[in-house]
Amino acid sequence: MDTPRILTIRELTLHIKGILERDRLLQNVWVKGEISNFKLHSPSGHMYFTLKDESSCIKAVMFRSRAALVPFRPENGMRVIARGAVSLFERDGQYQIYVEELQPDGLGSLHLALEQLKARLAQEGLFEPERKRKIPALPRAVGVATSVTGAAVRDILKVIFRRYPNMRVVIAPCAVQGETAPQEISKAIGLLNRVDGLDVIITGRGGGSREELWAFNSEEVVRAVAVSKLPVISAVGHETDITLADLAADLRAPTPSAAAELAVPLKHELAAAVGDLARRLNAAVYSNIQNKRRVSELLAASPGVSNPYYRINQERQYLDQLRHDLMHSISGFVNNKNAILTVLAGKLDALSPLQVLGRGYSITQLQSGEPVSDARSVQQGEKLTVTLAKGQLRCAVEEVITPWQS
Question: Residue ranges of the domains in the chain?
Fold first, then answer.
């Protein structure tokens, strides 16, 4: 009896892994199921999730190089179809599918990607009406970002030059479909923003399938339109085709030809309007001159202009009247103040010590000049000065009689 071969865990794992990887079906298999446990690993960019149905599940991993190509954002609960290779993850001893391609089950991936991107950009406010700017009524020059080989550029130029023959047009050539289209359209819009004299940009293309118009649904183009310093008119496909670039643009035109009509006015209409304004201006100037002439004639006929001395005499008479009024006011003011002064002088005279002295009273002062009001403040023999209504007396005190002695 042969001795059984005893394998290590690693040997067993590698053996099972080899079986799985040699199976052609398992190396390029399509499988559908519902996403659960979804995780986008940062910063590696790898996606890890589980695919499950009613009774089974399988681990799945999608590395960054392939995950970056998925046109929608996977979410838990989303039903998808995945293509990849089944192998074994040695560390966990668990088989899993390494996903190369992922698309929604039952809903086109492009449509789902569009709706998800639209919702995200709308949340950022890129489609808000408040962000949109007015298209200039008469641009100095028009920029066009489109393919130079398509019918759209010919339609745009034809309409522009029919409406305004000498309008300056700057074309930034770019692909409008295919993998490089989003990058080229965005670059063309950026280049036109750096051209001096441009006032508006037209970007778009002619009609086509939904896939052919898809570049104008890319996030790169939408953001380029949104951040443009110059107002942008979008003209993508036909009237029924609406892209995300249309929503972000300052103005949407149903066709490239319509965009050209919206970008430039009709020159002959402008010329007619300018002519009408010139006629109205001339009429207004003539009317104003006539009015001023009539006013001048009236002024020339007035006494002040025809006879300069009339005004001088008028002012001289007015000055005399002012002088008379001033003298009258001053005289009245002086008389009033004199009357007040007389009254006050009478009151002051009545209170004057001289009036008291005139009635026989006198003022007695010490030699220091201090008035004497109390006999006790002087000594016998002390010299005093007595002031009368007329003249003074130098006296010596013979006797001091105090109040209680009197």
Answer: 9-107, 116-265, 269-318, 357-405
